[in-house]
Amino acid sequence: MSKVLLVTGGSRGIGAAACILAAKQGYAVAVNYAGNAGAAESVAAQIRADGGKAICIQADVSDEASVVAMFARIDTELGLITALVNNAGVVDMPERVDAMSVARIRRMFDINVLGSFICAREAVLRMSTRHGGNGGSIVNVSSAAARLGSPGQYVDYAASKGAIDSFTIGLAKEVATEGIRVNAVRPGIIDTDIHASGGIPDRVAQMAPHVPMQRGGSALEVARAIVWLLSDDASYTTASVLDVAGGR
């Protein structure tokens, strides 16, 4: 059976690293992106240069119609999906809860939580033996913020990732007899450009002294955990949340 993977938010950071590493493990990869087509195509080009197969698909994961269309394109161009990495997510500028607008909070949950639900729904409809599928694996990208709360900065982001942890456990138990494993990784301080989008471009350097390992992590270190959870090497692992946070 061919291995077909969708990585949401696959054009940069952890998502891009997961795409490239998974392709080396034999997955045909759909690289989802929201707006930066050039970055997504760069990831796909690297996969193809290494002999792999990849396509790029623009879709806003918080928009149901866009997600449905994305999965239909994967069906046609790559075949039925066997693996999903729910990686697409946003953070915002540091702000206390008593200053947050409803628009900010809604955007955070629409992308980080609703998007993961919609993508997982479409994946389960294709993977589940209940629906005639052959099984598969889902990995959700959470955050150590789910445990730490991110006070004074990103409580809304932390709460959205707490929801991802609960979603992971519940969905895993729901489909455990249907050939699907569902797990999550909780990255800590990882050196990607999400920190710049949250207004603290040097956050890794700032936070490194507070990490037991005294450094930030790399996108590749998280991607290795993701690809392991996707693989048959993790065949008895489901409903698990794996911290990749340097001990923090």
Structure notes:
By secondary structure, the protein is α/β, with parallel strands linked by helices. The chain has one domain: NAD(P)-binding Rossmann-like Domain (Rossmann fold). Helix content is about 45%, strand content about 15%. The chain is built from nine helices and seven strands. The chain has helices spanning about 15-25, 35-50, 65-75, 100-125, 145-150, 155-175, 195, 205, 220-230; strands at about 5, 30-35, 55-60, 85, 135-140, 180-185, 240-245. A seven-stranded parallel sheet has the order 3-2-1-4-5-6-7, sandwiched between helices. Helix 3 (about 65-75) runs parallel beside helix 4 (about 100-125). The longest helix is centred in the middle third of the chain and has 26 residues, at about 100-125. It is globular, with a radius of gyration of 17 Å.
Please identify the structural class as seen in this structure: alpha/beta
Extract low-pLDDT stretches: none
Portion in beta strands: 5-15%
Name the strands of the widest sheet in spatial order.
Answer: 3-2-1-4-5-6-7
Could you spell the SSE succession in H and E letters? EHEHEHEHEHHEHHHE
Taking all residues together, what is the mean pLDDT? Answer: 95
CATH topology: Rossmann fold
The total count of strands amounts to 7
CATH superfamily: NAD(P)-binding Rossmann-like Domain
The count of domains is 1
Main sheet makeup = 7 strands, parallel
Outline type: globular
